[in-house]
Amino acid sequence: MISLVSHVSQRLTDSSERMKALRAELQRQGLSGFIIPHADEYQNEYLPPCAERLAWLTGFSGSAGTAVVLQDEAAIFVDGRYILQVQNQVDPKLFVSHNVAEWPVHEWLASVLKKDGKVGYDPWLHTPKEVDQFRTACERSGAELVTCVSNPLDAVWVNRPDPPSALAIPHYLGYAGKASAEKREDLARKLKSDRVDVAILTAPDSIAWLLNIRGNDVPHTPLPLGFAFLRRDASVVLFMDDRKLATGLVDYLGPGVTIHPLEEFGHGLDELGGQRWRVVCHSERSASWIFDRLAQAGAEVINGEDPCALPKACKNPIEIAGAREAHKRDGAAVCRFLAWMAREAPKGRLTEMDAQDYLDARRQENTLWRDVSFPTISAAGPNGAIVHYRATEATNRRIEPGSLYLVDSGAQYLDGTTDITRTVAIGTPTSEHRDRYTRVLKGHITLATARFPKGTSGGQLDALARKPLWDIGLDYDHGTGHGVGSYLGVHEGPQRISKTPNSVALEPGMILSNEPGYYKAGEYGIRIENLLVVIPCTDVVGMERTLLAFETLTLAPFDLSLIEASLLTPSEIEWVNAYHVRVRETVTPLVDADTASWLQSETAPI
Where do the structural domains in the chain lie, given as residue ranges? Predict the structure, then answer.
């Protein structure tokens, strides 16, 4: 307890000092406020250390959030995943925290800004849509939104890390499944049919997918950071720090790709404008600075989807085969971990970090492993109710008998990206534990077994996973499923399964998570997550419309001690039993004798 208090006290002192420095800089620049999002110039979810401005200022380490600092008050806005985390990490004397769904940033701004105030923003860190919302909010209050040529927070960030410069390397055809030239030709035909001259690619994962390259500029996601132009003749202009070019990469990319220093990107946009070319760029995923520069240069800018997004999401046969193989190996690592937990956790000596380290080590033994796909969530008891919790030396909790333990983890393998969550009982679970777990499992099964017409979006399926909880007045404050890349981002669009409106239809080859949950603040959390791939449905007789279905990729058993069989229907029991047979038969040859013995008992029929 003493170390925890000391750690938090020091962090809050740092935040207070940083706030004072930022406010002094704002005053020097003639600003009454400044907006700080969790974003970089590429609109990434996971950021290089040099772009972690929100964390540096506030102490909040989540992957989504926005702070607004005014001279006399400040607030931080997060979604439902981070409500408990922000309360634990951010000093309430410095920042009032809000659920962004209940009070959006722009609405808060309109309510607190004073007439003639000047609120600054960094145009590299916000999309045009966000800027329009902020500008409207300022105008409603008689204030002004001001574009900052230089970021005032950067001016006071002492010892800010350098920009990343990891090497960009080939991602070979045996894993990628389709040559870059073929991808570029396919997309170029679409540009021509849409009468577009150039697509501006601002998402690093799109560039990595298109050029069949990977990198290490961002934690846990193999991205090389840069921008690119895809022209209608299928050529690509890549803007990237030349320090990132691995030996032989220029030859690997071939004559259809020319490379320019990153600092020439703005000049490249000017040239597009000078030629009056029709340019497509995704306004919800690109920096406002880019749209401003194009408009000033005279380009005809079309707000359109990233042309790589949908083809990237629909995995080709080689990528799907790789995902299946990656999940077999990943399942073996997870089962070794769960078997070890079953032996060791009831003794009451393990901590969250002990468990996390053991699981991460099991995955690293695989020769195709490259990284975790996100920081492992190892959460005991009440920490499980913090949706994106991460154990630290200050918060590290002992895994105690009588509690629930939630572990959400994944890996980056050369042939696939994994993401799995399991919740297990340490000792004997309560009747409430069993009820809530089984309801989450019921929702998971309903989604996993869904058959749906072609053209159905993930948003239309979301309620399937929630109904067993809704039946007794419960719910969870996060999406049910996110897209997953192929040795790329563990969170990938444009597909998702959530309450949030999303018109993107699910298509064969898309990989998504299936992760309903339930969280009781201060007590425990439950989440069950498998990855699914969308496949054609072939087992419905007499169908009048084309149907799609899901194939479950993830291979690890559910905790039988937490399943209340009386709440399951006969078909749900049949599904669990069949899934457990598949897990046992697939994973047993890949694990040691002790794990195989545990698998035999843990996959026994209900």
Answer: 2-156, 169-311, 314-599
Task: Write the CA distances from 190 to 181, 194, 199, 418, 434, integer angstroms.
Answer: 15, 6, 11, 31, 52
Residue-by-residue DSSP string for 379-446: EEGGGGGSTT----TTT--B--TTSEEEEEE-EEETTEE--EEEEEESSSPPHHHHHHHHHHHHHHHH
At the second CATH level, the architecture of 314-599 is Alpha-Beta Complex (3.90)
**DSSP-assigned letter for residue 94:** T
Which class for 64: exposed (0-12), middle (13-18), buried (19 or more C-beta within 10 A)? middle
Beta-carbon contacts of 495 under 8 Å, excluding residues fewer than 6 positions away, are 313, 458, 483, 502, 504, 506, 507, 510, 512
The span from the first CA to the last CA of the chain, in angstroms, equals: 43
pLDDT in tens, 427-486: 999 999 999 999 999 999 999 999 999 999 999 999 999 999 999 999 999 999 999 999
Q: Which three-class secondary structure state does DSSP give residue 30? A: coil
Q: Check: CB of residue 196 under 8 Å from CB of residue 302.
A: yes
Q: What is the pLDDT of residue 379?
A: 97
CA–CA dist 221, 152 (Å, integer): 28
DSSP character at residue 561: G
The predicted-structure confidence for 76-103, as pLDDT tens digits, reads as follows: 999 878 888 888 899 999 999 999 888 9
The answer to whether the 169-311 and 314-599 domains have the same CATH topology is no
CATH number belonging to domain 2-156: 3.40.350.10
The C-alpha atoms of residue 111 and residue 60 are separated, in whole angstroms, by 24
Measured between alpha carbons, how far is 14 from 26 in angstroms, rounded to an integer? 18
CATH number of 169-311: 3.40.350.10
Q: Which residues, in sequence order, are CB contacts of 312 under 8 Å at separation 6+?
A: 205, 206, 209, 485, 488, 492
